[in-house]
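ok, trying the design again with the full structure, not the truncated one.
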């Protein structure tokens, strides 16, 4: 059975990805940081449909947590074949001159260093150079990487720019190891993430900026992620797919 870890899998795009992956035959690890009940609900829904899933608490910004997360998946689900780096954090909207270093460090720890640590552990397991059978990684970026999120959260946008660059570099580094690395760049998607930024209704405010004149749904991003993980994308690596309604 194919085995997938979805970081930040208890909500939004992560939860939609976990559910769709289970439908496609993956055993899924639903990683979460705070909401154990929501993670348990995702696992329960997968199991009710006949799938296999576990929920694992880990702060991906903490190296020891990441190592423990992957070790638990080794024990309970078997050989890893795919990783979706989805977990990210967002803080209240403000201009740069209002931000302190602690906020910036929190943002980069979770949104940039965390995915790099997770990818490191995945490569150690999946690389044919380490005895693995190959696999695929999808990094969840953001349209913010292209537009910068001025007056809202330039620090968040900068972390996603880092993820885009990391995706391209790692893809080239491990292409000969049987591992494909790609990214998705969601646009304005209806998730609870916007509430963390202090504006739960943000998508409805900005959707007129989207050529398709609407916000996206988590399931639409999940479908793109699963395609990139699939054999249908077997010659695709180092790509970043915009799922943004044309923006």
């Amino acid at each position: 059975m194919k085995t997938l870890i979805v970081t930040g899998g208890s909500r939004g795009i992560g939860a939609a990805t976990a559910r769709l992956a289970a439908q496609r035959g993956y055993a899924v690890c639903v990683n979460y940081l705070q909401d154990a009940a929501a993670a348990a609900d995702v696992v329960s829904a997968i199991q009710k449909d006949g799938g296999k899933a576990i929920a694992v608490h880990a702060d991906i910004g903490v190296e020891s947590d990441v190592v423990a997360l992957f070790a638990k998946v080794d024990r309970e689900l078997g050989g890893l074949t795919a990783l979706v780096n989805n977990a990210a954090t967002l803080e209240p909207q403000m201009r740069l001159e209002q931000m302190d270093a602690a906020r910036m460090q929190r943002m980069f720890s979770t949104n940039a260093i965390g995915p790099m640590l997770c990818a490191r552990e995945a490569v150690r397991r999946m690389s044919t150079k380490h005895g693995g059978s190959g696999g695929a990684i999808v990094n969840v970026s953001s349209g913010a990487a292209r537009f910068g999120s001025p007056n809202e959260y330039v620090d968040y946008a900068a972390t996603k720019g880092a993820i885009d660059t990391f995706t391209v570099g790692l893809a080239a580094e491990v292409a000969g190891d049987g591992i494909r690395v790609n990214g998705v760049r969601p646009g304005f998607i209806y998730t609870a993430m916007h509430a963390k930024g202090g504006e739960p209704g943000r998508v409805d405010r900005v959707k007129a900026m989207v050529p398709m004149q609407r916000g996206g749904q988590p399931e639409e991003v999940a479908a793109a992620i699963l395609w990139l993980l699939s054999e249908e994308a077997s010659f695709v690596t180092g790509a970043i797919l915009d799922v943004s309604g044309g923006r």
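Keeping the full-length input from now on. The CA atoms of residues 148 and 154 lie 6 Å apart.
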